[in-house]
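A further point concerns the way the authors explain their paired sequence and structure data. Showing the layout once, in full, would remove most of the difficulty. For illustration, here is how one protein appears when written out as sequence plus structure tokens:
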Amino acid sequence: MLTELRTILLYEADHIRAAANDEIAAEFIGFSRWTTDDSILEGEGEQSSDFEYEEEEYSAMDPQKVDLERFSITRTLIKCFEFAFSPSLSHELYDTNIKQITFFTQGIPRVGTFGETRPFMTPDGCCQIVSEVAAARWRLEVEEEGTFTARELALLANMTEGAVRNAMTGKGEGSLKTVPGKKPMQVEWAEAERWLKGRRGFVRTPARPSQDQVLRDRLKAIKTAQELGALIWLHSDLLEAPGPHSDFIERTPAKVDRSAGGAASLNWSHEEVMAWKLGTFTFDAAKAQALAQALDFDVPDFVGKALEVSLRRDASGGDQR
């Protein structure tokens, strides 16, 4: 996916060069098509340094030359990939991210300088698929509205589009009721949600942290008390009843099971809660267990990790860089 993104950006540099000039294209992509060459020119035998010659089109260059850190779309694309294919309560995605990735992929050049067509220019492009699945999951689990095409349902359910079309024209429990008169065929949100529940290939975003494999893996990978604190803060906010200014209303599925209550459900002082959220806590097994339960973490995993990172922090004098 990221190699394809680099290729897309090279083609966009050619597009900018065609619309503007080499200088603006080079500023966009981060390097020039012009290269210096210390060589002896033929003819009069004069030696010239810094002789410039024009390289090939940007699109013919090695994609690895592109520094993806220069482009904000890289971070958005990775977020959308995780949201689309590794659903988790820990993902931080907003409607603006969905709009950005949709706008980006819809604006990708559909043909190269010489009329060539590359895979990323087609519906089978990696970035295009990520964009579509992320947008479809957003409508399905966050907005809980809209209609869905056979392609979107196929991508969500990890099925072929043909199999979904068969369901749209079939009868029985496994069939899909389509919206009358819609071309191409589409189904309403409630029908899509019902049908996807019965598909083995569909992975729903978990409703509780204890059901969240991404969260469990993230907890195991934590190395510092600050990292643990950040995870505590994120999931404490998630599990507490959202207030009027909470951004979790915008970015998480509406059906989050908040029965664990989060840190706010504990009879702790503000200072004590903040110590855990900032990673400055003094380890206490009983308090770690209570916090794990309030956050719906696996208790042994959480308590063990809290002990591990606090020992690391204390042994290093608090410096965990």
Summary: Residues 2-19 form the longest helix (18 residues). Strands lie at 34-40, 47-54, 147-149, 186-188.
